[in-house]
Amino acid sequence: MKFPLPASPRSCLALAATILLTSATIAAAAGPTPAPDATPQATSAIYRDWQLHCVTGNPADKTAAPKTCEVAGVALAGDGKGVAARVVLGRPVADKPVQLVIQLAPGVWLPTGATFTVPGVAPIKAEFKQCVQVCFAQAEVDAATVTAMKSADRPATISFQDANRQAVSLPVSLNGFAAAEDASKQ
Fold it and tell me: What are φ and ψ of residue 28, in 5° steps?
């Protein structure tokens, strides 16, 4: 379908004026545009080797937490160029314990789970919960482990077995964890 165009410049201007007036009338009928909320819905910050991610809850939803944060670190692949694993700590519900989630690529031996070891405290055994494109192991973390992570001068370690039941151990830098964890409480 073709639309006929006005033949003269004067009729082009008249058409443009009609379109502008119509648009202005429609916009005025719709009412004023609400001002955008100046509060960010989500924020991220990097603290050396750790990232902090926070999401602000909907203030209209009285059951939602006002703000939830998680800190995430990585274990690099042997060549140092890729990520072999991710470690995330967060408290999804304010009155519940901190949760540890370890994310690994498929090809892990699921029955043995994964272990997160922080210098100076007992290792945390994380049970695999699901594998889709990645595998997730989860466990609760006590306050002593978080404190040990904040003051550690050596890396933590993720240990698991691969699909061939070979032991794999990956270091996780704790540089920046203390600052990220402290910022998550603000």
Answer: -65, -35
